[in-house]
Structures are given as C-alpha cells and as structure tokens.
UniProtKB/TrEMBL annotation:
Superkingdom as given in the UniProt entry: Eukaryota
Pfam families per UniProt: ParA
Protein location: Mitochondrion
Family: Belongs to the Mrp/NBP35 ATP-binding proteins family.
Protein known as: Nucleotide-binding protein-like
GO annotation, biological process: iron-sulfur cluster assembly; mitochondrial respiratory chain complex I assembly
C-alpha cells in the first residue's frame, strides 16, 4: 500500500503538518498544531506524534507481550550510553558532515555515493536532514515510499541505481517540518531503523549542519565506519568544521578525512581561476588536525546547475573534471573501507 494512502487513513504528524501548511498558517509547535484539531484527536494525535512521527503502522502486540505491546526496538541505555545498533543488511555506514550549512554536504554525499556505486558497490543514501532535506531534489526523486509487506518498514526510492530515503519523500517540498527535538529524534530513529534497504555495501548519511541531537544520535547509536568532513577553505566554515571533527572524535567515530569544496573557481566564460573562499584552508586544517585530506572539488556553475536539475555531475557528465574530483575522493574512501580492494582501479 502506498505510504501516503496509509497516512490518509489515520491522522499523523505529517498529515497535520501538510494540512497546516496548505492553509498557509504555520504554527510553531506540536502543542499548538494539535490544538487546531478536534478535541478527540488532540490526545490521540499527540500520542501518535511523539511515538510515531512518520506514521508507520504498528504491528499488533506479540502474544505474551505486555499491555503496551512488544518491547521497544530503541537501543537500551547501558551505563549511560546508548548501545549501537547496526542497520539491517548494511555493511558500512559513513556520515558526510560539517559544522556549517551550505558548504556542500548534500552535493558531496550524492556525488560520492554515485561514484562509489559506479565502483560496483550497492549504495544507499539516507538524508538525515529532517528540516532541510535535499536528497529528493538532488537525486530527482519524488513520491511516496511504499511500505514493506509486513507494513512496518519503508521501502526506499531508487534513482541512478542508488536507494534513497528522505523526510522529503514524506512531506511536500515547500511544507516546513515544524517539530520539536523529541519528534525529530523519533523520526530519525524511524529513518535509521525502519527502512528496508535490502543488502547494501554502503549507506551514505547526508547530515544536517551542526553538532546537535542528530549528530550525537547517529554517532552514538549507529556503528559508523567513518565520517567525511566537508568544508570550504573559508575560515568561518573551517571553524565549524573543526567543531564537527572534535565532536566526532569525542564520540570515537573514526574520521575518514576532509573534503575541500569550492576551493578553486574557474570562470565558465574565460577560464580565469580564482580562490574565492581562500586557498587551501581545508587542506591545512586537515593537516593541523591530523586528518587525511580526501581531495578538492572546485566551485563551478555546472555542479550547481546540474544539482538543481537532479542530474548529479558524476552521472550526467561522467567524463568531466568535476566528476573526476568526486571519483578521486570515492577511491580514497573505498580504499579506507575495503583496504583489501585498494588496488582496484576506479573508473
Ligand atoms: N563545488 C560546487 N560548485 C558549485 N556549486 C556548489 C558546489 N558544491 C555545492 N554547491 C552548491 O552550493 C549549495 C549548497 O550545497 P549543499 O550541498 O546543499 O550544502 P549543504 O548540504 O552543506 O547545506 C547548493 O546550491 C549546491 O548546488
Ligand atoms: Mg544538505
Ligand atoms: Zn571570466
């Protein structure tokens, strides 16, 4: 059954939000969202909102389970730290992160994932940016994820051979997600553990900016094989990138290295080269922080325009210089994740 059809059958947070945004009035918190509903739905909706923001139908209680149904699947706290839980069927998980927004995390995630998929790996992308999902646009995907036969997991959408899941599939492109942290965390849990990826060699998680709840949840609850830090060479981005690095170090997530995005600008008219955001800042920072430098991606209007059209440069211009940047980075990442295959030539 289509996911949105199911949503239509029971009021959920998503449905509420869609309704609210269609009416043009965006209310700033769950409580006031719920208050706009009839009295009966206030309490029931609230329960659904907090427990199950994506509205995934629940299984009936297992025989012998307590009155509240089967035990929750959320990892239990152990000595104050949540237990890490692998994602079913997924061999390696990497996060693409930075402290700052707009430095190219999503663009890098997509092109890196596609470049690695081109190296004979089964790859998926999880968009962990609940408030600003970019994957639907970048991967030219829209529509409703189906539910699995058991109706407890979402089926990812696929384009260019890469499976994708994003909050953006569950709400209209212009509808804001107006949720408090608790809801966001629960939605993240569902995106992490209730998606049917099948068998994947690699899941790339496109992270939101910052060093908050989402970053902590993902680094503490998911066994990350590594983190790729993206930064521009600009000091203001590097300051935040350092914070990102330090946060992942603190939670013992291995850092694969740093990507320097938008380093060199090549004018599409005259081929004049300039370092708009400074020269080599991310490379220097990587050295100072004892991290590997994974490579450069130049600032070019093609990358931006093709991204906006949902035609990532790695697949739409596979022989371009830009695609080569991403493929070079992909080769380094693959060599780190699968050291025994390090000699495999990248194509
Ligand atoms: N190397 C690049 N050259 C040109 N535009 C880029 C490049 N990298 C990213 N962009 C553009 O910059 C904007 C922000 O990129 P995005 O990947 O969404 O950043 P983030 O996910 O870090 O917020 C987008 O419009 C994207 O197309
Ligand atoms: Mg992004
Ligand atoms: Zn010029």
């Amino acid at each position: 059954m289509a996911f949105r059809t199911l949503l239509a059958q029971r009021p959920t947070g998503i449905q509420l939000l869609a309704r609210t945004s269609r009416q043009g009035a965006v209310t700033p918190c769950i409580t006031s969202l719920a208050a706009s509903e009839s009295r009966r739905t206030i309490s029931s909706t609230r329960a659904v909102l907090h427990e199950n923001p994506l509205g995934i139908p629940r299984k009936p209680p297992a025989p012998g389970a307590g009155p509240k149904g089967p035990a929750p699947t959320m990892p239990r706290m152990q000595r104050g730290l949540p237990q890490k839980m692998p994602i079913k069927g997924v061999k390696h998980i990497i996060a693409v992160a930075s402290g700052k927004g707009g430095v190219g995390k999503s663009t890098t995630s997509v092109n890196l994932a596609l470049a690695i998929a081109g190296m004979n790996k089964r790859v998926g992308i999880l968009d962990a940016d609940i408030f600003g999902p970019s994957i639907p646009r970048l991967m030219n995907l829209s529509g409703e994820p189906e539910l699995t036969g058991t109706e407890d997991r979402l089926v990812p959408l696929t384009n260019f051979g890469v499976k994708c899941m994003s909050m953006g599939f569950l709400v209209d492109e212009e509808a804001p997600v107006v949720w408090r942290g608790l809801m966001v965390m629960k939605a993240l849990q569902q995106l992490l553990h209730q998606v049917e990826w099948g068998e994947l060699d690699l899941l790339v998680i496109d992270m939101p900016p910052g060093t908050g709840d989402t970053q902590l949840t993902i680094s503490q609850q998911i066994p990350l094989s590594g983190v790729v830090i993206v930064s521009t060479p600009q000091d203001i981005a590097l300051i935040d990138a350092r914070k990102g690095v330090n946060m992942f170090k603190k939670v013992n997530a291995p850092i694969l290295g740093m990507v320097q995005n938008m380093s060199l600008h090549v004018c599409s008219n005259c081929n004049h080269e300039s370092h708009i955001f400074g020269d080599g800042g991310a490379e220097r920072t990587a050295k100072e922080m004892n991290l590997d430098f994974l490579g450069d991606v130049a600032l070019h209007s093609d990358i931006c325009q093709l991204s906006d059209k949902g035609q990532p440069v790695v697949v739409s211009r596979p022989d371009s210089k830009h695609a080569q940047y991403y493929k070079a980075i992909a080769s380094k990442v693959v060599a780190k994740l699968w050291p025994s295959e390090a000699a495999t030539p990248s194509s």
